[in-house]
Amino acid sequence: MASITEDERKRILRERRQAKMAKGKASDRLNTILNQGSSVNANTAVSVLDVPEQATSTIKETKPTSIDDNTVHEDPEIQDIDTVIQKIARTDSLNENPAQPPDMDALFNQIFGGASGAGFPSDSTAPGADGNDNADPFTQMMMQMMGGKGGDINNPFAGSSLPQGMPEISTYDSEMAKYTEYQHQLYEWRFLIVRYGLMMFNFIYHFINEPFFRSSSLISVRSNTFHTSSFMTWFVSCEVAILSAYYVLCFNRFNHHVSGNSWVIKLLDMGLMVLPQLARYKQLVITLFGYYDLLSIILNDVSFMVILFGLTSYIT
Amino acid sequence: MTPYSILLLVVWFLTAKAIVSTAGKPSLHNLAWMVYMKTVKGGTHVKLHDKKQELIAINKEKKAISAQDEYAKWTKLNRKADKLSTEITQLQLEVNIDRTKVNKLIDWIFTILITIPIWFCRVWYRKSLLFYLPSGVLPYPLEWALALPFGLTGAVGMSVWMFAVNQVISSVIFLVSFPLKPSVSAPSKEEAVNNKNNK
Q1: How far is A210 from chain B (nearest CA, A)?
Q2: Which of A81, A160, A290, B89 is most buried, judging by how many CB atoms fall within 10 Å of its CB?
Q3: Whether residue A175 is found in the same domain as residue A305
Q4: Is the CB of A215 less than 8 angstroms away from the CB of B131?
Q5: Residue A263 belongs to domain spanning
Q6: Contact B115/B122 with Cβ under 8 angstroms?
């Protein structure tokens, strides 16, 4: 007898299996497998091949979430949330254009659009945004409270003709906030280099040229001998120049941004919901934050001076 | 200890503290765990690694054969894979416990080497005068302020020294770290709208 190839053997086996399955008795075979060849047939499992067609369809109908009728596996191992959302939206009869995936931004806009106040630009399609008579009374009240009372402090678009697309603006705003933060840090970094450079130069110059310009762990440096040093004059002059430049370049430009991140301003914003009168103090707090920024520059420079004196105290 | 050595010691401890807080504890924990894995041979993590490799090999073998044509072999491999999975779960738990122990050890080391010495210096040397400023250089109000809270006017104490060191270290860290950050370009409104439309 001629030997058959591996492929032929597989094909013959497959055909035999299919012929066997075509005969029926799928439940019997299943129970034989489940009993592991035991003579006592305790299992009464019914094979899916023996279940009538109607019963199968009933089971399918009663399934709570049928995601896709075309799927081969009814319960895929991993479901992508985007796919699920798209498929649910596709089956939604209210959707006018089922072929397109739902716009999540538009969805959020519909949810939150009604609560947008004067401080935020809103989509014209959002309920209550157009200021008509059908608007939510709470929204109207909030818009009246916030209108023209400093509600636009953190919003660069307030008072201007607002663009129609809320999501684009929010993305633009977040990118702009990142850019402003980076620019602020960039200016701080440049100023820091200049400040430390000037302080270092001032200190080294006096350290070399003035013999009494020495700190020490010995109290003898505090002798009653009167010395005059130009160190402090130069220090103050540099500070005034630096702070003036910082004020001109950064104070008004980044002040709102820096203070906006503060918890005090956030607390104040929360308080504004209850007490609208607090709005008049918000600008004051923002200004104080700006001055605190300037004060911290002075403190940092004095600290640097103290460090230089401390580290050179060993030399004396 | 001489005032100058105390001064330097404080600088050292505060610098170490600033570096640790800048690097972040999780990254230091990860680093310590990597060192632990490389140095300790024959630990639970090695067994876990071996078992995982074995499971990968079995899964590959399982995928290479047909479950219908070679049912017995496939079932045998499947049973083996199940057994290995159980073992891996157990070993993973043990490795997690080991990792927690290593993290705790690192935290203790930081506390003993950095936090406790800083507090010790803060309390023990609170009245020590670290150095005196030269007379006639700084104005009196500034000298008085720098001597707070316990020092004589013209001297610098521990509190002011620690404050100054912290301020300068944070500035130096910012000075070094900022250029390493990726730059942010200015956004354009049109681009944002176009991106949205393209979606």
Answers
A1: 11
A2: A290
A3: yes
A4: yes
A5: 166-314
A6: no
Is B137 among the domain residues? no
Question: In this predicted model, what pLDDT tens digit does every residue of A184-209 receive, in sequence order?
Answer: 888 889 999 999 999 999 999 988 88
pLDDT in tens, B132-175: 888 878 888 888 998 888 778 888 989 999 999 999 999 999 99
- Dihedral pair phi/psi, residue B131, rounded to 5°: -160, 165
Looking at residue B104, its pLDDT comes to: 93
Are A306 and B3 a contacting pair at CB < 8 A?
Answer: no
Report yes or no on B117 lying in a domain: yes
Q: Is the residue at B89 inside a domain?
A: yes
Interface probe for A, chosen from B15, B65, B131, B166 (most Cβ of A below 10 Å), is: B131
The residue-averaged pLDDT of A234-249 equals 90
Least confident of A79-83, A232-236, B112-116: A79-83
CATH number of domain containing B102 = 1.10.287.660
Is A33 among the domain residues? yes
Q: How many domains does chain A have?
A: 2
* A28 in any annotated domain: yes
Is residue B81 a part of any domain in this protein? yes
What stretches of chain A show up as alpha helix (H) in DSSP? 6-22, 26-34, 53-61, 81-91, 104-112, 137-146, 166-209, 231-246, 252-260, 263-274, 279-311
Backbone φ and ψ for A8, nearest 5 degrees, come out as -65, -40
In terms of domains, do A170 and A43 share one?
A: no
Structure tokens that stand for A279 in this block = 């709005």
Most confident stretch, A69-73, A251-255, A258-262, B58-62: B58-62
Residue of B132, B148, B191 to mutate, testing the A interface (most A Cβ within 10 Å of its Cβ): B132
Separation in Å, CA of A131 to nearest CA in chain B = 25
Determine the structural domain holding residue B55 and report its residue range.
24-125
Per CB-CB distance under 8 Å, the chain B contacts of A167 are 196
> Which residues lie below 8 Å from residue B108, measured CB to CB, with a gap of 6+?
none
How many angstroms separate the CA atoms of B136 and B182, rounded?
Answer: 46
- Is the residue at A25 inside a domain? yes
Please determine, for residue B61, whether its predicted confidence score (pLDDT) is greater than 60: yes
Are A168 and B167 an interchain contact pair (Cβ–Cβ within 8 Å)?
Answer: no
Q: Average pLDDT over chain A, rounded to whole?
A: 70
Does residue A82 fall inside a structural domain? no
